[in-house]
Amino acid sequence: MTYVNAGDIARLADVGRAAVSNWRRRHDDFPQPVGGTAASPLFSLAEVESWLRRNGKPYEVSQADLTWQRLRAAGDDLHLGELVAAAGDFLEGRPSGLRAGVTELLADLAAERGPLDAFEFLCERYVEAHSRQLAVTPADLAELMSRLSGGGALLDPACGIGTLLLGAKAALGQELSGSSARIAQIRLRMRGVAGHVVAGDSLRHDGFPGERADAVVCDPPFNERAWGHEELAGDPRWEYGLPPRGEPELAWVQHCLARVRPGGTVVILMPPAAASRRTGRRIRANLLRGGALRAVIALGGADLWLLRRPEAGERPPAQVLMFNGDLATVWPAWLEFQRDPRGVPVIDLLDDEVDVSPLRFDRRGTPAEFLAEQEGFRQAASSLTGPDLGVLEQPRDLNMTTVGELAKAGLLAVHHSAMKPDEVADRGEVPVLSGEDVLLGGVPSGWAGSADGQIVIESGDVVTTPAGVVRVIAESGAVLGPQLTLYRLDPARLDSDFLAGFLRAGGGLSRGTSRLDARRTRVPRLPLAEQRPYGAAFRRLAELDDALRAATRRGERLIRLGLDGLASGHLL
Asked: Which residues form the DNA methylase adenine-specific domain (predicted)?
């Protein structure tokens, strides 16, 4: 029997998950779950298809979804990771042990999309199916962590399915789950990354003793009490102190520092509580005194710690960066701190608490800055107007196609950047458009050397990021940056803003989904003259989105300055 979850059903019928939930509540004849859990039930695909036909709900099973469903049906969900890894073996030409019916579908999918994109699609579906068990670093955060690391040969001692290592020149990884380690190795190999991934518990059984990487990136498991406190009490990795039983994250920090070369960088994701828990204050103090802790960056639900393994005889820095921001502002703040290291004095942190929470130090601004920010917010808020849209009593009956069909018909071409994050620098021959530039609508901020295979952006191209940001590019000449996708249109038949709007509206580029899903985004078949009014409205909505983001940033700073001014007595 082939099983599907609520997300699969939503994709089949091209509706949102909420619609599937409504069908389950309102229709007594909707198929009952045949497996899974109460929170994540599984349904029989045959029963769901029968129900959709009976109720006049159009649906389509794509080649990719059919392959995924048959692969998933080849075993039970407890061994789903092994099935995905076996699919990777087949796509790379190795024996897989999968049944002929499944391998035939895999071969067809690879012929349609290529082995790498086919395997990435399966990985996306696997993560979605096991979202409660698999913790995968979001693509935009992974890109930032890789950039902060400085590149080179990377090590990730808790690598999961390898997301943090995909942009490396060379990589070492270790993962507790054997199937996840196999998947990570395949993902690296398919990208041509020289890497080695082993299975095992990094803290108890280090897979790379004696190895020293250029940098370590890590998104370790949080709050794991059974991490080996007793058996590892005398471990030489604890240079800065024995991690308390309830502080496994400080064990991971020291493990990462032990596996990076002198002068190398560690970028590790930490729970915010690790910055202030009393039990960890001695280790935090030693990290500060030794010059290892260089920055703590608050990102909402988690903190990024940037550490550097001191070189012999090196004088510890006197300042540490304490920064509260978002993904778009972290890199500029870090560059500025490296040029002019004005942060929080280490001596101010070495009190009884050794609290390195960035929010403690986010107290910038003067009354004059408050007034300027207030005026800036008023101006930004005044531009928050949308397009003039009419309302129809009945929706238009439009003849729809998909982005994939438009590509097959020659109306557009899809290009995926092969550039890796470590190829982008502060200087070079050609400008590079990054994901942050697309998000902020700014000019290209990176540089790279000229090389074969680079995709040069032209005016009117539509560019998307893995996080789902879509933007029409106005200026030509920059190179498409890492992990970005470009849609080049035939301007005589397709309007750029029209396509960009439906990409945003279609949900195929929503956070956490594969870029491949964009090919299924539905687009009306309309002549160019009828596309343009749609494009104009979509463009105005995109401008409203940008204006709202700008107003939000100004509003957040206005609130912070107002709170600080009132609390300090500088404002009435």
From this structure: 117-299
